[in-house]
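Table S2 (continued). Query chain:
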Amino acid sequence: MTPDCTIIVRRAAELLAVIPYVLGFHPSDSLVVVGLAAGRLVTFGLRLDLDPPIEPPDAARFADVASKQPAGAVTVVGYGPPGRVTPAIMRVMDALRERGIPILEALRVTEGRWWSYFCESSHCCPDDGTPCPPPGNALAAREVFRGRVALPDRQALVAQVAAVTGAARERMTAATERARQRLTDRYGEDVRAGADGRLVRRAGRIAVRSAEQRHRAGRSLTDDEVAWLGVLLVDRAVSDYALDRSTGDEWRIRLWTDVLRRVDTAYVPAPACLLALAAWQDGQGAVARVAVERALAEAREHRMAGLLDRLLLSGVGPQAVESLAPPGQGAVTADVDGDRLRE
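Corresponding output:
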């Protein structure tokens, strides 16, 4: 969460209404831990898949991440059938308690109704459960008005960073070939001038600034501009330059989403990392996670993608990483959207 995206909840039903907007999508077959300050201010949300079943080591790693987040207490919510949710809830609650994290409430959501693991009163928690807030509830409408989005499911989130197809892909394939030839020519100029790569790096910095200016003004890049930027970002000095300039501005997230979707597969990692960094700086941890996953799917050993992946999984917040950034380098920020933690 970011300071300008404050969410306050007072009851279990209100929390269930806003969880999709905290995560960025409506969870299913999931276990979610939501951090709360002063008992009602939402500070973070983490999610873990229920498939495969959550075992004690999974719960321990998940609780370790939760323990690093800013919150006075948490609420645990499981989405799915009781036979899968209840064992997962119990294991995660045990792990949270072992780390001294207070648990305000534990809920199960199954087929549009919710049950409390803490409340035994049939007056407020009937045996057949309580209906979940309808999709158009007041809290959901408020979050939409404030610009927060809850996609139907996580697959819809993944689709937002997927490669373009069809005619758009054919145009980008042709543009990429032109960009590769242009880069070859630029390297030739660089060698003849004895510039030791400076001409290419200069072209990269110009391309980054130009792309930023276009998107900040609400305009899109042409196919050739995207392809040229993509091939230049392979140079580590150019990608580091772009990372150093990163912020959580909405136009910057649009920029790197557009570039990521349109570049050739070989050039995916750099814009994916730039999107991940900008998204987390804006409090969109789920977007950051799927962007990093795209980068690692194309280049498992990519330096920055690996760093962002480790930071996301460890739960290191942006303020902590900013304080550790070496002189002259921009802050790298990350967090967990709560997907299955990996070794």
